[in-house]
Design brief:
The protein has about 280 residues and is α/β, with parallel strands linked by helices. The protein is about 40% helix and about 25% strand. Strand 3 and strand 4 form a beta hairpin. Helix 2 packs antiparallel against helix 11. The chain is globular, with a radius of gyration of 19 Å. Bound molecules: S-adenosylmethionine (SAM).
Length: about 280
């Protein structure tokens, strides 16, 4: 299928994106099964904030493969409610047209930060026995920390988050900060929630040329962000995230999971550990 037929460019994905979708597939089943057994839970909501078209072209397999939206719609047992958000109307229409018509599925072709903060997340109530799994899978720094914080504080919402370290390393964590544009600093502040990422990404060190800002490493940055998910957003459990690497062994992004539930932490840690190496 090409652009002329689809009306949009299908994403070509690498092995690491396929692993991300496999992880979601495994957890979606476990999530629904566990919550079904808790008879008092009234809603099991799936929200895909950067949903895409529900299908991709796999570079490795050289064929079409399901995306996160399709995997969630096919989950057994299923979720009780679905929300798909994507700024790209063509992708969202493709997803809608290729999914079975169901009245428990809603599509939102808007900026996900707006939809999540103003329409969806405030309606999910822990006290009313509603629970949600929120997938935050941007290409880069398109997410607002306020979304993560609102999810954490709700105690009803679990997240998978794509932490786009490659976008950060390329565009923000430059040794010469005069080369970093204001808009990239703004995107980074918005994603991290404030400018404390500077302390995580740089150390002041004495060098031959005087005091210099020296870049730390991915692990230090990721450790600090993990701390923020717990201490600032208020998630009770955040397993060690898993790095997703490309063919040249460079880390493209990390997958984080965060939840208020210990059981969820255990299940996802086991899944992550299978893929860690
Ligand atoms: C990495 S892809 C998502 C892939 C999908 N989660 C999957 O695994 O099948 C990112 C998607 O986010 C969409 N997007 C980018 N910025 C957005 C925004 N601010 N709000 C909603 N969608 C956005 C893009 O159109 C693209 O389809």
């Amino acid at each position: 299928m090409n652009k002329e037929i689809l009306g949009f460019e299908l994403d070509e994905i690498g092995r690491w994106s396929e692993i991300k979708i496999e992880i979601l597939k495994k957890y979606a089943s476990a999530y629904n099964q566990i919550l079904i057994n808790q008879k008092f839970i009234r809603k099991r909501i799936y929200i895909d904030a950067f949903s895409g078209a529900g299908v991709h072209f796999s570079k490795e397999k050289e064929k079409l493969v399901p995306g996160s939206a399709t995997v969630a719609l096919d989950a057994i047992p299923p979720f009780t409610h679905y929300h798909f958000i994507d700024l790209n109307e063509d992708k969202l229409n493709f997803l809608r047209e290729n999914s079975l018509e169901r009245d428990n599925v809603k599509y939102h072709s808007e900026d996900c930060n707006e939809v999540l903060l103003n329409k969806l997340l405030p309606t999910i109530s822990f006290k009313n026995y509603e629970r949600a799994l929120l997938i935050l899978d941007p290409y880069g720094l398109q997410l607002d920390w306020k979304v993560i914080e609102m999810a954490g504080k709700s105690e009803a919402i679990e997240i998978f988050l794509n932490f786009p370290i490659m976008d950060m390393n390329r565009n923000v964590f430059r040794r010469d900060n005069s080369k970093v544009s204001d808009s990239n600093i703004e995107r980074m502040n918005r994603f991290w929630g404030d400018n404390s990422w500077k302390k995580a990404a740089f150390n002041s060190e004495e060098t031959l040329f005087g005091i210099e800002e020296v870049k730390t490493n991915n692990q230090t940055i990721v450790n600090e962000f993990r701390k923020r998910l717990k201490e600032v957003a208020g998630f009770g459990y955040v397993p060690e995230p898993i790095p997703m690497k490309n063919k040249t062994d460079a880390t493209v992004y990390y997958i984080f999971f965060a939840s208020p539930k210990k059981t969820a932490d255990k299940i996802v840690s086991d899944i992550f550990n299978k893929y860690r190496n």
